[in-house]
Amino acid sequence: MPVDIDIEETCVTAYISGEIDHHNAAQLRRKIDEAVEAAYPQILILDFGAVTFMDSSGIGLVMGRYKLMRDLCGRIDIQNAPRAIGKVMRMAGIEKLISAEREDKRI
Amino acid sequence: MKPINEMKLSFESRSCNESFARSAVAAFIAVLDPNVEEISDIKTAVSEAVTNCIVHGYRDGIGVVYIHVKIFEGAKVVIIIKDKGCGIGDVKKAMEPLYTTCETGERAGLGFSIMESFMDKLKVRSRPGKGTSVTLEKSIVSKGK
Ligand SMILES: Nc1ncnc2c1ncn2[C@@H]1O[C@H](COP(=O)(O)OP(=O)(O)OP(=O)(O)O)[C@@H](O)[C@H]1O
Ligand SMILES: [Mg+2]
């Protein structure tokens, strides 16, 4: 499960590609968390631009990172989600959760 | 009513088979000329049901996951996904949004909600100690459009 991670001062961006399912989620989670724990960013951006499939395991992945960043007093953001992936995210109200956080923290 | 075409598949409950399972179902129904959204909805629902067999049904080991796909007149697709694992005590409760027995915090408890909203119909039958059977139904209406 490929993920390219870009670390800038206060921001970590994870460019995820391929299929996010239960099989792939564990490795993805490990790689993203490693980067976050090394860099302590204020913002973790998850980029879904090259994701071709996602099921509820992807929601679990996003929610888990949401909690991790909240514990570090930062927040997550999501970008470039294709239509089908947006449809799965909406099931969990993830977009609303993230924009509420953005308002709250203003970062 | 008799199906006009059907397919059966069984495989070991290893997580590396999740991708194979949803792709195989999608390939089988391709003759109905579904559009991108219909294919993606079906693949997602199949992935949810198969992952549940692997993660929950056979949580203590490896078992066999069974898939039976039937196509009926009018492009109606019926997919039955079964395991002979631990079963579910309270199906109604299990199907509630956000309900999960997973304790690692990495599962959202939305699998059944996704199956329900991405398909036309969802039926769940289960017996503790015997296993679980999930029936998914969807009519392909797009004809590729
Ligand atoms: N095949 C199965 N065998 C045994 N228990 C199951 C099975 N499928 C579902 N369950 C039970 O029903 C609960 C809800 O399932 P659901 O798919 O909605 O959520 P989840 O699998 O816990 O999380 P998610 O699907 O969002 O990753 C599960 O936590 C599990 O306890
Ligand atoms: Mg599930």
CATH architecture assignment of chain B: 2-Layer Sandwich
Q: Write the element-wise H/E pattern of chain A from the N-terminal end onward.
A: EEHEHEHH
Largest sheet of chain B: 5 strands, antiparallel
Molecules bound to protein: adenosine-5'-triphosphate, magnesium ion
Strand content of chain A: 25-35%
What does it look like?
- Chain A has 107 residues and is of the alpha/beta class.
- Chain A has four helices and four strands, in the order E-E-H-E-H-E-H-H.
- Helices cover 51% and strands 31% of the residues of chain A.
- Chain B has a single domain, classed as Histidine kinase-like ATPase, C-terminal domain (Heat Shock Protein 90).
- Chain B is 32% helix and 28% strand.
- Chain B has helices at residues 17-28, 36-57, 91-94, 111-118; strands at residues 5-12, 64-72, 76-83, 121-127, 131-139.
- Chain B has a five-stranded antiparallel β-sheet with strand order 1-2-3-5-4, covered by helices on one side.
- In chain B, a hairpin with a 3-residue loop joins strand 2 and strand 3 (76-83).
- The two termini of chain B are 28 Å apart.
- At the A-B interface, helix 1, helix 2 and helix 3 of A face helix 1, helix 2 and helix 4 of B.
Note the main attributes of this structure.
heterodimer, A: 107 residues, alpha/beta, Transcription Regulator spoIIAA, 4-stranded mixed β-sheet, 4 helices, B: 145 residues, alpha+beta, Heat Shock Protein 90, 5-stranded antiparallel β-sheet, 5 strands, 28% strand, binds adenosine-5'-triphosphate, binds magnesium ion
